[in-house]
């Protein structure tokens, strides 16, 4: 086997994949009129499937879609890409979860020439953060299709009661407002957010960047014990410990944190914008009428929230139908398709679509403004950019848990940095 395994592959998985009709078989030559596309279960996928007849009519091509859940998708890629299979042409993948590994193992075709070939399609229209996240060694290896930014969710009514006329613009103001609201009514948390060791890493990242830190420094070394990182850990943990929910647990992911907010038990909540309907839908939220959105508050280094592509399209480097595969990618990521997706609630990566009133008509006005601020100065990753992402998140997330529990955040950061550097050294071998 000429390529390194992505995950531990069991014979059971290999057998299962061998028995499943995943690619449709047939001619793999460059002249094949069938493009085999593997997509994740997502609203984006459902929208594309509905629009497919238009593409097939325009091009004379036939598109065969394999649609899988995220775990099945990982298993499919693990088996087929590692084996050098050519029966996947286009693949939907997670740039920040597996993008670096896929690119390093040469599973993703270099699209550098293709993205420059059509001025009307306009690669320069894509936001810088998501483009950076779908690049490897300065080469485009994917095209972002779905984006997320971290914004501040808040309760307008609670701000009014506290005599605050506007949401906090800085992290200092956020802490002061959270303290004031909780002091006035201890049953209401001033702030809530993810607390679990791994789930919290992505949302903590915006705090880290806004303090001037990052997980890895410019020379590739672990940097979660820099002064900036230590301040960020202490701030995030302290905000939850001192002004968060009573007896706050340290295992919350977004559903638990969102539930506290939507049940009316918190004033402020930092989270991905893609989850906003959980807070504004009356069927899901008791506070739907009073929810507001604001840009991520500025820290010492400014407001530096993540602006990431949660999903992208790439082309299998072993595909023998790359020309037609690109036609599908180009169409699926066009301005027209991106606008249609965004109107249905799927946030895209094109600047022109966010600037188009049609592209934002279904979003709350203040959320659009918060997203605009995030995309301007956003950072293109929300976790360490490594091969084994899950393991890295466990390491760099530990100081978050320690800080929430009231332990020494600086000491926890030092311990984490030592473990993270060893992790990076091991990956580099």
Automatic annotation (TrEMBL):
<dbReference type="InterPro" id="IPR050490">
    <property type="entry name" value="Bact_solute-bd_prot1"/>
</dbReference>
<dbReference type="InterPro" id="IPR006059">
    <property type="entry name" value="SBP"/>
</dbReference>
<feature type="signal peptide">
    <location>
        <begin position="1"/>
        <end position="21"/>
    </location>
</feature>
<keyword id="KW-0732">Signal</keyword>
<protein>
    <submittedName>
        <fullName>Carbohydrate ABC transporter substrate-binding protein, CUT1 family</fullName>
    </submittedName>
</protein>
<dbReference type="Pfam" id="PF01547">
    <property type="entry name" value="SBP_bac_1"/>
</dbReference>
């Amino acid at each position: 086997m000429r390529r390194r395994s992505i995950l531990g592959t069991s014979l059971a998985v290999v057998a299962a994949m061998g028995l499943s009709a995943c690619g449709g078989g047939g001619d793999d030559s460059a002249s094949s009129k069938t493009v085999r596309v593997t997509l994740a279960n997502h609203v984006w996928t459902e929208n594309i499937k509905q629009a497919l007849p238009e593409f097939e009519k325009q091009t004379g091509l036939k598109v065969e879609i394999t649609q899988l859940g995220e775990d099945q998708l990982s298993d499919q890629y693990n088996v087929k890409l590692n084996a050098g299979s050519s029966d996947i042409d286009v693949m939907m993948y997670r740039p920040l979860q597996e993008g670096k590994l896929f690119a390093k193992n040469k599973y993703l075709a270099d699209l550098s020439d293709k993205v420059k070939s059509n001025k009307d399609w306009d690669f320069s229209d894509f936001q810088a953060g998501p483009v950076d996240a779908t690049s490897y060694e300065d080469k485009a290896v994917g095209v972002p299709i779905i984006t997320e930014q971290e914004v501040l969710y808040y309760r307008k009514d609670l701000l009014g009661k506290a005599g605050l006329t506007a949401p906090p613009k800085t992290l200092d103001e956020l802490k002061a407002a959270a303290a004031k609201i909780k002091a006035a009514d201890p049953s209401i948390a001033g702030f809530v957010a993810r607390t679990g060791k791994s789930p919290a890493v992505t949302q903590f990242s915006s705090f880290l960047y806004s303090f001037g830190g990052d997980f890895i420094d410019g020379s590739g070394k672990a940097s979660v014990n820099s002064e900036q990182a230590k301040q960020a850990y202490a701030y995030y943990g302290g905000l939850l410990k001192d002004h968060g929910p009573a007896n706050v647990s340290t295992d919350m992911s977004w559903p638990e944190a969102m539930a506290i907010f939507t049940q009316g038990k918190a004033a402020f909540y930092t989270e991905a914008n893609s989850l906003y309907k959980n807070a504004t839908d009356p069927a899901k939220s008791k506070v739907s009428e009073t929810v507001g959105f604001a840009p991520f508050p500025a820290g010492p280094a400014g407001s530096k929230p993540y602006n990431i592509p949660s999903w992208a399209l790439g082309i299998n480097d072993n595909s023998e139908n790359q020309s037609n595969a690109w036609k599908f990618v180009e169409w699926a990521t066009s301005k027209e398709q991106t606008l249609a997706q965004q109107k249905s609630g799927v946030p895209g990566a094109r600047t022109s679509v966010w600037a188009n009133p049609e592209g934002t008509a279904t979003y709350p006005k203040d959320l659009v403004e918060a997203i605009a601020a995030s995309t301007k100065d956003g950072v293109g990753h929300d976790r360490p950019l490594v091969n084994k992402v899950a393991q890295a998140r466990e390491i760099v997330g530990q100081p978050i848990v320690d800080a929430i529990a009231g332990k020494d955040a600086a000491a926890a950061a030092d311990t984490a940095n030592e473990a993270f550097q060893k992790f990076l050294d091991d990956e580099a071998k």
